[in-house]
């Protein structure tokens, strides 16, 4: 190749490189324009959905609340329905195929006593199959606490179907866990909502006004946080009158958990507002004659809303754990109300736990819900700042 050919070849390479650089520059400019045109909430959503663990946690949380909403319909038995002949029944195995056809069934059970341990054991009768049917007629209940109904998602016309065994009174553990989730999950929602109401306003007020208001609120937070949480919960719940009805106790427990749990949110928002109160948009609102209430409600709280959502999501596990711990210790909710913590009271005796390990199943649901909330909260925390990589 001569000098002229080499020069022509080099010139074409430069032209190709220049075209490639221009294309990359256009793509970068378009992405920057798209970033500026996209709202912060949409950018948060895009970053959140890229976190698969957080999305999985959100799906599990949503599934738990949907199950809790229709718990009475999903559960094959009601909360207090007893089947004395099936006390301490181990979890049953459901067979899905019968004679080559899709027909779920369980074997009929015969209860006997073990001659050595004198424990009650159940021997399946393989000659008698009991079909498991969907949308069966059962005990009456109120769907979502409002609509009378008696149709259950699945069940049997005779015998028993118990996916997670029964307790000492022959009550189906699966049904009690599903129905108990209504209180365990909603007490977290109610407690966090009240904590948000208290913590958001006190935290924003503390950071915005400063001075003696800030000192007063921060000293109050320090006093509350200086007490060990478990003994404080125990003292406050033990002070509740024993003659109160269960529903009143439920709301009292929610208020107690909220009055203790708002301090973390207030501290977080105070630090955020300390940085935001010197921003240009706050100064512009002041110069335009806006009142402090207007600036707080229309500017500062919306500006911190992403952090409020993240903190509230991360606070849910502590609320669920607090209720479960208090009820497990016998200082929280009491029968006939049923929650995961109340159900775990049966597992306090180590001998019972060794003989009937399925009574610990409510603890499994507590662990799964807390993990799901933590995964969801971590994903929301990362997505709350969509400009970081």
Provide keyphrases for this structure.
elongated, alpha+beta, about 400 residues, 2 domains, MetI-like fold, two-stranded antiparallel sheet
Chart the SSEs and their pairings.
Elements: H1 3-37, H2 40-50, H3 52-69, H4 71-74, E1 95-98, E2 101-113, E3 120-131, E4 133-143, E5 147-155, H5 173-209, H6 211-226, H7 229-238, H8 246-261, H9 263-276, H10 280-287, H11 292-303, H12 305-328, H13 340-344, H14 350-355, H15 361-383
Give structural notes.
With 389 residues, this protein is α+β, with helices and mostly antiparallel strands. The chain folds into 2 domains: 92-162, no CATH class; 176-383, Orthogonal Bundle (MetI-like fold), CATH 1.10.3720.10. The protein contains 15 helices and 5 strands. The chain has helices at 3-37, 40-50, 52-69, 71-74, 173-209, 211-226, 229-238, 246-261, 263-276, 280-287, 292-303, 305-328, 340-344, 350-355, 361-383; strands at 95-98, 101-113, 120-131, 133-143, 147-155. The strands form 2 sheets. The protein has a 3-stranded antiparallel sheet with strand order 1-2-3, with no helix packed on it. Strand 4 (133-143) and strand 5 form a beta hairpin. The longest helix has 37 residues, at 173-209. The radius of gyration is 30 Å and the shape is elongated.
